[in-house]
Automatic annotation (TrEMBL):
Provenance organism: Auraticoccus cholistanensis
Region (Disordered): 389-416
Designated name of the protein: PrsW family intramembrane metalloprotease
GO biological process per UniProt: proteolysis
Keyword field: Hydrolase, Membrane, Metalloprotease, Protease, Transmembrane, Transmembrane helix
GO MF entry, a single one: metallopeptidase activity
Pfam families: PrsW-protease (PF13367)
Length: 416
C-alpha cells in the first residue's frame, strides 16, 4: 500500500501513514476526523486538555483533568461556604499552577526551563499587576465582578460610555498587547521558534495574565475575610467565571496569535499578515468577552448576571478552542512532512519550504506534498521566492527517459 499524500510504502494493515500522518483507510485526506494529538477525537472537538496540554495527553490525560477538576471544585466549595479569600486564590492560581506542572512534567525545554517560565509567566504576571492596578485606580475602586458597574449586577444606574470603552476596548486591547511581549521574545530564539512552542508560550502568558488580573481586581475579597453565606450561588458562579472561563479565553486567544508569529516552516515567521490576523482574532475575542461581561453586569439579579457572563464566555472559549485545535493539527502535520524531508537530506542540510502553504518540500519535488502547488510555476512567477529544494538544483540533470507519444513530462513541458 502507498500513502496518497507522500507516496511512502506502507504495511498492508496500516491505518495512518508513519511519515506524514495521513489517514490511508478513508477519504479524509486532511485527517479532520482524527486529531493528530489524540486520534480518537475529531479535530472539531471541545476537549480542553488535549488542546492546551497536547504533549502530555497521551501519557497522563486523566491526571491533568483530575487536577483541574479538584482545584476548581475546591474553589467552588470554599466560595459556597463563604471562605472567599481562599476561593479567589485557588481560582486564580488553579489553571496556571496545573499548566506549569504540565510543562515540567513533559520536560519541555529541559535545558532552559527558567527563562521560559520567567518570560512567559513571570513577566506577564508583573505586567498584568501593573496594568490592572492602573486601570482600576483610574476608576477609583476595585471591582468584584470584574466589570465597571461599581457593584454587584444592577446596582449602577446603567452602562456609562467611559466605563464601557475601558471595559470593552482599553483593557482587552492593551491587555492582549502586554500578553504578547514575553512569548514573542521567546519565539524569536532559534531553539524556541516552532509553532508548538509559540502556542504554548501564548497559553502560559494568557493564563498568567488572567491569574494576576483576578487577584488584583478582587484584592478586597482576598483581604476582607469570609463573606458569609449570603448569595452562595452568585459567589460560586463568580469564582467559576474568574477561575476557569477567563483564563481559558485569554490563554487560547493569546496562544493563537503567538502560534502565528512562530508560524510554519523554517524559523519564526515574525510580523506577517498571518500574525496580524491571529492577533486580530485574539483582540476581537477579548473585546467581545469584556464588552459582554460589562453589559451583563447590569442585569437586575446578581446571580443571573454572572451566569449569563459564564455562558457568554464559554461560547467565546469554544470558538477559540476549535481555532487552536486547527492550528495545532496543521502544525503537527507540518512537522511530519519536515521529518520525512529530513530523512532524505539529513539533519544538517537546509530544508526548503513551499511559499504557498509553508510546508517542507521533499528533495527533487516538482509539486508540494501538502497543497499540490507546482513549484516551477511558483518560481517563474516569483523568482525571488524560489522554493525548489537545493538538492534538485545542484544534482546533475539525468537524461529523461523516452516518453510515449502524447505523454509529455512536466519538465519537458516547462522547457518547451
Amino acid at each position: 500500500m502507498v500513502c496518497p499524500r507522500c507516496q511512502t510504502q506502507l504495511p498492508a494493515v496500516a491505518h495512518f501513514c508513519h511519515h506524514c500522518g495521513s489517514d490511508v483507510r478513508s477519504t479524509d485526506v486532511a485527517r479532520r476526523k482524527s486529531f493528530a494529538v489524540k486520534p480518537d477525537e475529531p479535530v472539531a472537538s471541545f476537549s480542553l486538555v488535549s488542546t492546551i496540554m497536547p504533549r502530555g495527553v497521551s501519557e497522563h490525560p486523566q491526571t491533568y483533568k483530575l487536577a483541574l477538576l479538584i482545584s476548581l471544585t475546591l474553589a467552588l466549595v470554599t466560595a459556597i461556604f463563604g471562605a472567599l479569600p481562599l476561593a479567589v486564590l485557588i481560582a486564580a492560581f488553579a489553571i496556571p499552577v496545573v499548566y506549569i506542572v504540565y510543562l515540567y512534567d513533559v520536560n519541555l525545554w529541559e535545558d532552559e526551563p527558567l527563562p521560559v517560565v520567567a518570560l512567559a509567566f513571570g513577566l506577564t504576571g508583573l505586567l498584568s499587576i501593573a496594568f490592572t492596578l492602573a486601570w482600576t485606580q483610574l476608576r477609583g475602586e476595585t471591582f468584584r465582578i470584574g466589570e465597571l458597574a461599581g457593584g454587584l449586577g444592577g446596582q449602577a444606574p446603567g452602562p456609562q460610555v467611559t466605563d464601557f470603552l475601558i471595559a470593552a476596548l482599553l483593557v482587552p486591547v492593551v491587555g492582549e498587547a502586554l500578553r504578547q511581549i514575553g512569548p514573542l521574545l521567546l519565539a524569536r530564539r532559534p531553539e524556541f521558534d516552532d509553532l508548538m512552542d509559540g502556542l504554548t508560550f501564548g497559553i502560559v502568558s494568557g493564563v498568567a495574565y488572567a491569574c494576576f488580573d483576578t487577584v488584583v481586581k478582587h484584592w478586597d475579597l482576598v483581604t476582607g475575610g469570609s463573606a458569609g453565606l449570603d448569595e452562595p450561588g452568585m459567589w460560586a458562579s463568580l469564582i467559576f467565571l474568574e477561575g476557569f472561563v477567563k483564563p481559558v479565553v485569554m490563554g487560547t486567544a493569546t496562544g493563537i496569535a503567538c502560534a502565528e508569529f512562530s508560524g510554519l516552516g523554517r524559523g519564526y515567521d515574525g510580523f506577517t499578515p498571518r500574525y496580524v490576523r491571529g492577533l486580530a482574532e485574539a483582540v476581537i475575542a477579548n473585546v467581545l468577552y469584556g464588552a459582554g461581561v460589562y453589559l451583563f453586569s447590569f442585569l437586575p439579579d446578581p446571580t443571573l448576571a454572572v451566569l449569563v457572563s459564564i455562558v457568554w464566555g464559554l461560547l467565546i472559549a469554544a470558538v477559540l478552542v476549535l481555532r487552536v485545535r486547527n492550528v495545532l493539527h496543521h502544525g503537527l502535520m507540518e512537522a511530519a512532512l519536515e521529518a520525512e524531508a529530513r530523512e532524505v537530506v539529513g539533519d544538517d542540510a537546509e530544508l526548503h519550504f513551499c511559499r504557498r502553504c509553508e510546508m517542507p518540500l521533499a528533495p527533487h519535488a516538482a509539486f508540494c506534498n501538502a497543497c499540490g502547488m507546482a513549484l516551477r510555476v511558483q518560481h517563474s512567477l516569483h523568482p525571488e521566492r524560489h522554493a525548489v529544494p537545493a538538492a534538485a538544483e545542484t544534482a546533475p540533470r539525468q537524461p529523461a527517459p523516452a516518453e510515449p507519444a502524447g505523454d509529455d513530462s512536466f519538465y519537458d513541458q516547462e522547457e518547451r
